[in-house]
Structures are given as structure tokens and as C-alpha cells.
Amino acid sequence: MALNLLVSLISILISTIFPQSRALQYPQDGFAFAPSRSLIDSIAPTTSLTSSTSISPQTSPLVPALFIIGDSSIDCGTNNFLATMARADHLPYGRDFDTHRPTGRFCNGRIPVDYLALRLGLPFVSSYLGQTGNVEDMIHGVNYASAGAGIIFSSGSELGQHISLLEQIQQFTDTYQQFILSMGEQGAANLISKSVFYLSIGINDYIHYYLRNVSNVQNLYLPWSFSQFLASTIWQEIKNLYDLNVRKVVVMGLAPIGCAPHYMWEYRSENGECIESINDMVREFNFVMRYMIEELGEELPDSNIIFCDVFESSMDIIKNHESYGFNDTTNACCGLGEYRGWILCLSPEMACSNASNHIWWDQFHPTDAVNAILADNVWNGRHTKMCYPMHLEDMVGRKET
Fold first, then answer.
1. Which CATH number among 3.90.78.10, 3.40.50.720, 3.50.50.60, 3.40.50.1110 corresponds to the domain 2-397?
2. Long-range contacts of 264-267 (CB under 8 A, 24+ apart)
3. 112: number of CA atoms within 13 Å, CB side?
4. What is the mean pLDDT of residues 346-359?
5. Mean pLDDT for the chain overall
6. Is the pLDDT of residue 131 over 60?
7. How far is 33 from 23, CA to CA, in rounded Å?
């Protein structure tokens, strides 16, 4: 086993240094990036834990497209094409995905936007860098999310290349320009205004910036003022998207990373207790974001902007884990060290045999089973209310005025 682990580690390090070799290794992974509708209709979900697994695409899409901006929680393959240590294009990542192969998703299976795409009647949304650049490939949406990305440009830079929030918005602007050239200004504006935008970013600004005290930031900003700074930046970027005819936006709050295996290991948690000082920062950020999103919704005419408190929903899962079918709330399924939070998931030998009874897949990311529950809650609050002032189902069900 030790020899196999060593070989796996060497292989992954080589693929990180020479990222193109990894991309060439999976030339047939088209389904992971742009699955055909017929293929999605024919596959069966791999998780058996929640009701989300019985979802099948709508016969008619509820919206034209789903556009995704964010970090590793929703990266579906962007970082496969970058020179970075933040990569998930190797097993055991993706082992429980529909294809049972790595796609670049930081999970054993599906990420939340996969489940939501099916709810909306759309195919899985492919990554911006994983497409050919044809409008036909982007007409049902694009995923710009990049692992390591933050609101602050340099957040996560120690990991290597990533596409920051501002760069992702620029990529969307480029996509919009392609739509205009293809279908005219009115056609492009109509498509964008009726589509859903899913924004999930900010956690790396704590993990890779504030908590690491980069540039002595903790002496410049108290946690509360840092949260306000991040939230105000998102506020402005949503307004910029509004100027590009974006009208339906789902803004995700931050997850309880104080309960993540990495910080449980780093802070030497006793008896699996969460690190409350870190969770307090997350609570503050989510509080500020919810307030700002409410004000923004009132300020921007014809907009539908909702805020979903991931912390609230995640803590409900942790506290009531038995009723959800989880028996391990502290240890990652894949990793090394106490709580398996010391080293990122690098090889199949590091993973548990059954991820469905774990809340955490690796140091920071939840399992497919948790993503299914979170997606349920974003859609209609099935398990616990987490979105304000409405759920995604309510948003897309509203008639245009």
C-alpha cells in the first residue's frame, strides 16, 4: 500500500507541474464538461441518501441557462487547465460521479450546481475553459468557477494559477459579447435576463488570506470590517452584472469551515468540537451579505436576488446527522492525519470505502450526499429553510412582469 501511495503521489505531482499532460489524459471526458441531454436522461444518480437522487431533468427547461461563478465548491473542471496545486482531476475525486471518473469536481460525486441544473431542466453545465468556444456549447450556461479563487484577487495565489472573481466576471462579459454577435443585442439580453446566475465565493478569502494573515491583514481589518469589505465588493459586482442584464441571482453564503477537518486538525480540536472563532467570522460575513442582498434587491428594478445561508443549512446537517443518515461528522473520507485533515486527498488509498455516511469528503469539501441536501434546500427548503427572501423554485416560477 505504501508503494502504491508513493507512486500515486509522484503521478499527481507530475500532473501538477505539467498540467497539460493531465488534460490530455482524459480527452474522452466530454460528458464531464458538456454532457448530452440523452446521456443525462439515461444515467442513474450514484448517491442513495436523499430525495435529490431521484431528480430527472425537466421535460422543458425552466430557464434558458445557468451561469456559475465561484470557487472549488462548484468548480467542475476549470483548474484542470491551470498550473496549480488545487486540482481534482485524479481519483478518488469523481469516483462516485455519474461517470465514476475524475472531472475536476472537488467531491466524490456531484456538486450542488449539478443537482440544481437538473432541477432547472438543464444539462450539467460545463467549464468555461473546457469548451470549444462555440455559442452552441454555451447556450445552456457556463461554469466559470475556479478552485482557490476569492473575492480578493490574490487569495489562493500560493496554490498556483486560478481565475479570480473579477476575472470570472470578465469571462462572462466575453461570453455575453459572443451571444450578441450570434443572436443580436435583444436576443442576448433576453437570454441573460431570464437565466439564473449562481454565485458562491468568499471562503478562500478567509482560508488563504485572512486566517493566514497575508500582508498583515489582521492588523488592518478586524473580522467584522473584513467581512464588510468582502460583502461590499460582491455588492458592486452584482450591480455590474445587473448592468449586463443579469436579473436572477443566487448568492451563496459561506460554509462552517470551523468544522472542516483541516481546522479541526490544525487547531487540535478536542472531541470533534468545531473551531468557534473561525465559525464566528463566517456568521458575520453571512449576516452582512444577507442584509446587503435584501437592500440590493430593493434597489435594482426587476431583479430577483436571493441569499442562501450555507452555514445555517450545514449546521443543521451536522447537528441532526443521524436523521440525515450520516455517522461521521468530523473525519474527512479522504486524507491523512487527525480528522484526516492534514493532507489533501491525493490517492485512492487515502479514501474511505463509503463516502455516503461522511459529511466531509476531504479537508474542506463536503460529500456528494451533503451537496444533494444543500441543493434541495436551495431549491425549495425541503430539509431546512436557508434562502431569503425566497427559494430558487419560487424565483424561476415567478411570472415576468
1. 3.40.50.1110
2. 264/330, 264/338, 264/339, 264/341, 265/337, 265/338, 265/339, 265/341, 265/342, 266/341
3. 28
4. 97
5. 87
6. yes
7. 12
Closest to 72 (Cα-Cα) out of 221, 179, 161, 204: 204
Which whole number is the average pLDDT over 151-162?
96
How many residues are given for the chain?
401
Tell me whether strands 304-308 and 387-388 are parallel, antiparallel or unpaired. Answer: antiparallel
**Cβ partners under 8 Å of residue 230, min gap 6:** 151, 152, 202, 205, 285
- Contact at 8 Å (CB) between 223 and 365? no
Quick one: CA dihedral 24, 351, 330, 160, positive or negative? negative
Q: What are the tens digits of pLDDT across the range 250-291?
A: 999 999 999 999 999 999 999 999 999 999 999 999 999 999
Q: Which residues contact 352 (CB under 8 A, 6 or more apart)?
A: 333, 334, 358
Q: Is 199 helix (H, G, I), strand (E, B) or coil?
A: strand
CB 103 within 8 A of CB 94: yes
Active site residue 72: yes
Q: Provide the residue ranges of all domains of the chain, joining segments of one domain with +.
A: 2-397
pLDDT-derived band at 49 (thresholds 50, 70, 90) equals very low
Contact 141, 124 (CB under 8 A): no
3-state secondary structure 272-341: CCCCHHHHHHHHHHHHHHHHHHHHHHHHCCCCEEEEECHHHHHHHHHHCHHHHCCCEEEEECECECHHHC
Among residues 179, 145, 190, which one has the least CA distance to residue 365? Answer: 145
Does residue 362 carry a catalytic annotation? yes
Catalytically annotated residue among 309, 316, 362, 376: 362
pTM comes to 0.86
* 3-state DSSP assignment of residue 250: strand
Please tell me which residue in 90, 262, 358, 365 is annotated as part of the active site: 365
- Are 94 and 355 in contact by the 8 Å Cβ rule? The answer is no
One-letter amino acid of 275: I
Q: What Rg value do the Cα atoms of the chain yield, rounded?
A: 20
> What does the H/E/C string look like for 338-392?
HHHCCECCCCHHHECCCHHHEEECCCCCECHHHHHHHHHHHHHCCCCCCEECCCH
